[in-house]
Amino acid sequence: MSVITTDPIKRMAEIADKVEHGQRLSLEDGLFLYESDDLLSIGQMANKVNTRLNGNKVYFVQNMSLYFTNVCEEHCAFCHFRRDEGEEGAYTLTPSQMLDYVAEHFNPEIREFHISQGHNPHLPFEYYVDCIRQLKNAYPDVTIKAHTAAEIEFFSRISGLSYRDVLKTLMDAGLSTLPGGGAEILTERYRSKMKVEKASSEEWLDVHRNAHMLGMKTHATMLYGSIETKEERIRHMMLLRELQDETNGFLVFIPNSIQPASKNAGLKRRVPAWDELKTIAISRLMLDNFPHIKAYFINIGTKLTQLSFTFGASDAHGTIVKEKISHAAGALSPEGLTRDELVWLIQGAGRTAVERDTFYNEIKVY
């Protein structure tokens, strides 16, 4: 779908007026912004919205990424992390091995475990429940953010339980929130072309809907920069916006640019910085009911992350410790940052650094 305008300056002014008065942007508005080459005007509008919501603050969390297994039955075209059982580099940690890894890298200021893994068909649902339970028993004060909506759908299939019952079982074991992964682009054309055979768009949304109905706050992502159209990006945002209208359960939106080391997607180069900044800004403008937009330094790098704070981003993610999934696909950023490095990153962009917990409760203002 192409937006046709005879006066782009007037069109931009109309959108700016909508933003000024807090009016919701349409599909056509979003497409116009993507087609526009006036990046600074788009950034100024996004910065205005973000300032209205968050002032000069940029948030971060001291967190640690964990990966129970990289064995996966899926073959997503963009993934370099997954392995088949028995393939070189394939692994599955026992709960005790996982706890040993955490003990080796843990520091007392970590407030969140961010857990991702493959859809391992050789493990029962009880394995994942036991890992969460043992982790929570060992570190009761650390929030567990684990299992994308695609993983919850996978657990539902292998256990025979409903999404709601899967979520309740994991919550009883210690789960507090879902990460936003597995969304990719929420259109079936994209998912078919990119061999995303895990949860469908509607299933992904329904898992989060169920989580929100149980009182759980969750996260949302978009993986962009491959074969999707700009209209698909905007429609993805609008689907999230509609669910947020319904449940008010999302904490933050994370637009993730795809990394180029793909086995099957035919990707030759990284997403341009222009597109990354524009997507962060448009996300801020379209998702008027999301409190935060995250700049994921792992995918866009630290310098562009600093710029993003004037293009609508209000979150710099966290310390991470050792990120594996994006780096397996070719990310050039650090595998993690220290607290002091994150504070410097934020303050160096002229913003106020705020350490938070998973739910954006403020821990310390720097």
Description:
Strand 2 (63-66), helix 4 and strand 3 form a beta-alpha-beta unit. The chain is 44% helix and 13% strand. It has a single domain (57-365), classed as Aldolase class I (TIM Barrel, Alpha-Beta Barrel). Residues 322-335 have low confidence and may be disordered. With 366 residues, it is α/β, with parallel strands linked by helices. The strands form three sheets. Strands 8-1-9-10 form a four-stranded mixed beta sheet, covered by helices on one side. Strands 2-3-4-5 form a four-stranded parallel beta sheet. A two-stranded parallel ribbon has the order 6-7. The protein contains 15 helices and ten strands.
Mean pLDDT: 90
Please compute the radius of gyration using only Cα atoms. 20 Å
Q: What is the CA–CA distance across the termini?
A: 46 Å
Sheet with the most strands, sense and barrel status:
4 strands, mixed
Helix-strand string: HHHEEHEHEHHEHHEHEHHHEHHEE
Helix count equals 15
Strand content: 5-15%
Shape: globular
Instruction: Write down the domain tally.
Output: 1
Write the layout of secondary structure elements.
Blueprint: H1 8-20, H2 27-35, H3 39-54, E1 57-61, E2 63-66, H4 95-105, E3 112-115, H5 125-138, E4 143-146, H6 149-159, H7 163-173, E5 175-177, H8 188-193, H9 201-213, E6 218-224, H10 230-247, E7 250-257, H11 273-286, H12 297-300, H13 302-308, E8 315-318, H14 325-328, H15 339-347, E9 352-356, E10 362-365
Parallel strand pairs: 1-8, 1-9, 2-3, 3-4, 4-5, 6-7
Antiparallel strand pairs: 9-10
Helix pairs in contact: 1-3, 2-10, 3-11, 5-7, 6-7, 6-9, 9-10
Cofactor: [4Fe-4S] cluster
Binding site for S-adenosyl-L-methionine: 78, 184
Protein name: Aminodeoxyfutalosine synthase
